[in-house]
Amino acid sequence: MKFRPALLLLLAFTATCAFAQSAADLGAGKARKAATWPLTSTPEEAQAAQLSARFLTRFHYDAQPLDDAMSARIYKAYFKLLDSEKVFFTQADMAKFAPLKTQLDDAIWNQDLSAPFAVFNLYVQRAVERMNYARGLLKQGFDLAVDESYTFDREHADWPKDQAELNDLWRKRTKNDWLRLKLAGKDDAEVRKTLDKRYANYIERVRQLDGQDAFQAFMTAYAETTDPHTDYLGPRAAENFDIAMKLSLEGIGAVLQPRDDYTQIRELVPAGPAAKSGRIEVGDRIVGVGQGDNGPIVDVIGWRLDDVVNLIRGKKDTTVRLEVIPADVGVDGKHEMVSLVRKRVSIEEQAAKKKIVEIKDGEATRKIGVIELPTFYSDFGARNAGDKDFKSATRDVARLLGELKHEGVQGVVMDLRNNGGGSLAEANTLTGLFIDKGPVVQVRDSKGGVEVQGDDDPGMAWSGPLAVLVNRGTASASEIFSAAIQDYHRGLIIGEPTFGKGTVQNLVDLDRFAQGDSEKPQLGELKMTIQEFFRINGGSTQLKGVTPDIAFPKNGDDKDFGESTYDNALKWTQIAPAGYQVVANLAAYLPQLQQKHAERVAHSPAWKLMLDELAQYRSMRAKTSVSLNFATREVERKQLEAIQADFRARHKAIDGSDASLADEASSLDDGLNANERSLKSELKQEKDAKKAKDVQLNETAHILFDAIGLIKANPQLAAEVLPYGGKFSPHALASLPAAAASSVAH
């Protein structure tokens, strides 16, 4: 089932890992000061809001005035961001704030953010009140024999009309938490202890919210009201965005997560300072941080994660000292002091990776290379500074293609599933690895001017058979690449229809336009939509995405995930096509590939299992309410247990793993939140999931196997379906492995 906590809290306090490192200058290494209530905005934040408005109303691709009409949309977005499920505010609260519908534009223009901050302050107050109310309910327990239900999906519900209705909503919400733990086998005392601790921790984290959080929430509401992909990035968010783009940072090389009152080591980056020290282990808890060789140790027990990260972050070759409780001792165990020198660390988890899949069909066996690319990354700073070794998705993929050639693969699959995009320039250059030369994308600005961008360098890093695997999470730069490959008929697009994002954003450093004498105003950055991109055939990926040549089953997420789910998304349009020539005729062999695919999956136990799991996943996602009767839920749990046992048994028979593709939807609920489980069990679950057979990737490789077989068996067909009529540039041909070169020659 899906629970939707207030987005702000999800962003501020999710247990998702964070790298404890960056290139930030810490100075004395102090954390942010404790918040003073009620929260108020700073002059810098008020200036950042006004500056953002000036840019958005003048330079946005679809510039709209910041007036009363926009104010009403910001109002709606702000309350949805804070309380999307309508579980904190009442109709009386909303009536109190109703005048703000036409006043938020004035608040921004006049640099007076007292109104949106007043909303945020009440939100925090209500959140604490609700958690305290839930804690009070735990003392008396619940009658689990009553026939009643709890509607947990309240996105389209009305605000509770009064305090009594809100209390009843929270009674059911808390009762459901209680019931989940009871169904998992815990007695009343264990349930009461677990939930009281959960709600107390929630209160503590809510109280740690500060003015930066309030401002970030309000500015997010404003920015995303203009279009779904415009966003305001506060100083912290801007720094994290920069790290994500360049895939490198300066620090200790550890991934952290909050657990109870502690900051825990969740993962060590190979070859990073923490891993190389031999004194830091996964599961260690950080209780103190000191700067340099002799700086005082700051006690960080109970701190929010980003404050701890701020202390651990620092410049390359500087020293940080960590006071840790080792993973294998209790909280009262002996503390250890570890001194680490910060270094430049590469985040290889998000970098391009390769592997080889061997496909056997009858007596034929072929090696298919797979390159998984999670994002289109590029270290802009290093590139602009002339660093010849700057981090780049294109450079990494080119290197991996060279290695795959050397290993004798006969086809390549680019796996772009869940690749949300990144650098537009990288999308261009990466496409250039697979085409001789020519246009890749057309970009239109707000004035209607169209620029054709593409690859001007002749030759290809890979000129053999190609497939691109996509899904609903394939977006933006990934769609540019996929669309170009499809328009050129350079390779097969396989999978689900993509996200449908067809806009280009640019980063505006607001500090460059700050007023006043401050040397470090720290106004943040504005990620603003400035252009729309179009395929070289003149169509757009906006809303429609890229439609695969060979479609795989949808998982159902398209109903609430994708560009078409945004009510303020730009409309689909088209322009004149660019001047380009298709390099092959995929239509000549698509029907045969479709037929082979259909026949194969019809007899595939793994494919049938995937379909059954997807059906179960969709069924669970469709639920919006649950019974609060123990007997009813126990029957449902037993039914789910039987389904899940069947899935596990089938997985075991197929690939020897216990993992299920539908674990989120169909695994038995233990009643715990993610950070309430042991780290050991979390890591084991992730490891087991990785062992599961990737059915879609394997089938994609098999489709490419079929394509290679058709080409080899029919020289006349090869002249039609191979790029450039089966003729390659001398450079590309010389770089092909023997097996691939042979298939081209025949």
TrEMBL record:
Q: Which residues form the PDZ domain?
A: 242-313
Mention any one GO cellular component term assigned to this protein in its UniProt record.
Answer: outer membrane-bounded periplasmic space
Gene3D superfamilies (UniProt xref): 2-enoyl-CoA Hydratase, Chain A, domain 1, 2.30.42.10
- Any one biological process term the GO annotation gives: signal transduction
Which positions make up the signal peptide? 1-20
Task: Tell whether Lipid biosynthesis is among the UniProt keywords.
Answer: no
- Write the protein's name: Tail-specific protease
Give the organism, scientific name. Rhodanobacter thiooxydans
